[in-house]
Amino acid sequence: MNPDDAVPPIEVPCPQCAVPADPESLRCPSCREDLVALVRLRYAGRIDYNEALDAVREGDDPTARVLLRRALQAEPGLRPARELLDAVEARLGA
Predict the structure, then answer these.
(1) What is the pTM of this model?
(2) What single string gives the DSSP state of each residue in 20-87?
C-alpha cells in the first residue's frame, strides 16, 4: 500500500453548490463561500492527530494519548493515529 493512501485527501462539498472546496483556500470555487468550519467538523480527527504529533514531539505522551483517542473516535479508520496511539501506549505502559 502506498503511504499516501493512508489518509484520503480533504473533500468537503459546498452545501450551496455541491462543488468540492478548494484544498488551499478551503473556499467553494464556485460561490467563494468559506468552508473552513465544515472542514474542521469533517476532519476533527486529523486535527487532533496533528496536535498529538506536536505533543509527542514535546514529550507529552499523556496529552498525545488523549488526543489520539479522540482522533480515532472522530475518524476510526485513521490508521496513522492508531499506529501512533499503540506506540504512545506502549511507552506509557498502558
Answers:
(1) 0.71
(2) BPPTTT-B-TTT--B-HHHHHHHTHHHHHHHHHHHHHHTT-HHHHHHHHHHHHHH-TT-HHHHHHHHH
